[in-house]
Amino acid sequence: MDNWENTGFNEYEMIEKLIESSLYELSVLKENLKTQLPILRSNFLNNFIKGRIKSLEDITDKLKFLDLNLDFKAYNIVLLYIRKKKSSGLSGEDMIRISFLNIASAELIERCINRDYAGYAIEMENDKIALILDTGYLQNFYEGPREILTQLKNYLNDTILMDVAMGVSCQFYNMQEIGKAYEQAERALNYSIIKGKDITEFDELEQITDMYHFSVEQAVQLSNYLKIGDEKSIEVLLDSVYRENIIEKKLPPEKIKSLIFDIYNTVIKTLWDLNIEIGEDLPIEELLLKNNITVTFSKIKEKIASVCKIVKYEWENKTKRIINEILAFIDDNISDYNLNLETVADKFGKSSKYLSKIFKEETNSNFWDYVNYKRVELAKQYLKGQDISYAYKKAGFCSLSTFMRVFKKYTGITPGQYKEISK
């Protein structure tokens, strides 16, 4: 009896310790998540404003976890470019305070905005911060946000010595158009930077009669051509842009700089999407400092051509890696009669049509020819010591009739004849 009670006590004590250990691990996990939450939140919002998330319905749980509410009545994107001013003459204490505020600039800006509007601030690349604002209850931008952004600019300028240029999108009511809003804000920001303005709305660009023409469609074309390294099509497109803006419109230098900036941004965004680093292959400063327009555009084409070669090399290497993985997968699963084009495509996250295309290009053989050849070769090995029924099943054929037909196609003889020859 004493032993039983002692055993029960020990088990209870062990369970209690397990519960304590689990609770501790849970608290550690919560703390880790808490520290990672700002990064996860920033990454999510970064993808959201660039139009990479198409529906909020599929991400309800993620929004709840990240403590985000993006169910806005209308959206405005504001893009800020921050140039840090010189800090000569400041005391050491002021320098430390300003350095801290610079690091926390996105959080600081979000707090300022949230005093009057729902929205979020997101740290972007290249000293940029994006704001996504809920402006659904406003008739136009001048009803409030512009005044708040002007106050914000003055605050940043006076408090942490930041000189800020801003670009503002039109108002959008459909979340599916958020990527377009971001593109508008980016173009408006580029205009602010080059013209030395504080705030530019995209609507203003539409009213400027001598603005350059580089349409969204042309930007998409340039991006798509770059993604496949199509140097020739890019050259034709840029020649068309040059002819329309430089020869026909005779744009002044500052407008040409804006055009070059827009082309540059399209290229850089595409390379980010492709996760390709190009280092100093496309220095914007060098392109903008060229005085001769013809030389400038020639340099652009030359630089983009070098980028195309990098993209093409990366693309070809990536395709070869995928094909090698597919061939290894086929070899490992050749005995499975369920192995087919669709199952392999699903395994590698590709469409059947695309997989079939790259398979043919890289191996000079279509998918089924390769699979059937490998199965016949495997069947030959089995036929040397086993009967035909065993051989065709182990080689991955789903029926004897298919096996007989395919075997004769690839060897010129029947399985029975091969078995006799192999004795």
Short description:
With 423 residues, the chain is an alpha+beta fold. It is 65% helix and 8% strand.
Give an overview in words:
- The protein is an alpha+beta fold and 423 residues long.
- The protein has helices at residues 2-49, 60-65, 92-103, 105-114, 145-159, 178-195, 202-207, 216-227, 231-248, 253-274, 284-289, 293-332, 341-347, 352-363, 367-383, 388-394, 400-411, 415-422; strands at 75-84, 119-123, 128-134, 162-168, 199-201.
- Strands 2-3-1-4-5 form a 5-stranded mixed β-sheet, with helices on both faces.
- Strand 4 (162-168), helix 6 and strand 5 (199-201) form a beta-alpha-beta unit.
- Helix 8 (216-227) packs across helix 10 (253-274), helix 9 packs antiparallel against helix 12 (293-332) and helix 15 packs antiparallel against helix 16 (388-394).
- It starts with a helix and ends with a helix.
- Residues 1-9 and 96-103 have low confidence and may be disordered.
